[in-house]
Amino acid sequence: MVSTQTTIGDFHFDNCLMNAAGVFCMTKDELAAIEQSAAGSFVTKTGTLTKREGNPKPRYADTALGSINSMGLPNFGYQYYLDYVIDLQKQDGSKPHFLSVVGMSPEETHHILKAVQASDYQGLVELNLSCPNVPGKPQIAYDFETTQNILQEVFTYYQKPLGLKLPPYFDMVHFDQAAQIFNQFPLTFVNCINSIGNGLVIEDEQAVIKPKNGFGGIGGDYVKPTALANVHAFYQRLKPSIRIVGTGGVKSGRDAFEHILCGASMVQLGTVLHQEGPEVFTRITAELKAIMKIKGYENLADFRGKLRYIND
Ligand code: RRO
């Protein structure tokens, strides 16, 4: 029997596929649709200390090869999402979940995480260190000193399972430096990658989204090689207790297979979920299982991280 079940920390998931934060996860209705789909879990839209409207529209566009967005962190505030995952947790047969959060300053991030620590929530938290779209706020994880300082402080009070949503890195030295920081902490997972920040898509003579003169995060086909490289770079460098969640450019079972081959324990769907809706989990799960069957793999552990290189 071919199975796509997986684990992250102490959490068991019946399927390794789930949504990527930002897609189909803004409202309780959208989250409920993912909960009822073939997905193994859901992650919420990143929640901030207080509700945010986000950037002016149009702020998302599908393109032939993927998507561009500059949503600007619209959300109902972390408490909305925390209340919902606590509600679900009380129900029999509930899947384990990921609550995505970040503050607009380190102080706000600590405020939110202290509240989650003090709450009844027993699931996973994904700290988003990589939002590319808030004007005037750089992506936190590109600033290694700030990242180190935030994590140092977080782990003085936070004892629940925590992971990080990372931006793509593009240099071997940056993989080394980032991994050296993450390995100092009892992280449960890292999620590679957020959108590739600050791309520009043009139609005729005009940018396709309004915020930031058209600059926005790129997802879809464009980003798969970068995502795979980041998944594999961190799989090679992080201690085994830090699991890897693979996100970026997955629109088929083959794409999910490649993320797992690079070391992913869980695989997230972003642009394709936006384009096809929650039924996509059924299709991609079936495609992934068909590939595993042909190759004689019964579970993810049979091929996770086993990417082959061309040797002399
Ligand atoms: O809301 C957004 O603009 C957004 C976020 Br928080 C993120 O982490 N990644 C992204 O592509 N967009």
Indicate the CATH topology. TIM Barrel
The run of helices and strands is EEEHEEHEHEHEHEEEEEHEHEHH
Strand-residue fraction?
15-25%
Question: Can you tell me the overall shape?
Answer: globular
CATH homolog superfamily: Aldolase class I
What's the number of helices? Answer: 9
Number of strands: 15
Low-confidence stretches: none
Number of domains: 1
EC number: 1.3.-.-
GO molecular function, one term: dihydroorotate dehydrogenase (fumarate) activity
Pfam families: DHO_dh
Organism: Streptococcus pantholopis
List keywords for this structure.
single chain; 312 residues; alpha/beta; TIM Barrel; 7-stranded parallel β-sheet; 4-stranded antiparallel β-sheet; 9 helices; binds ligand RRO; pyrimidine biosynthesis; DHO_dehydrogenase; Dihydroorotate_DH_1
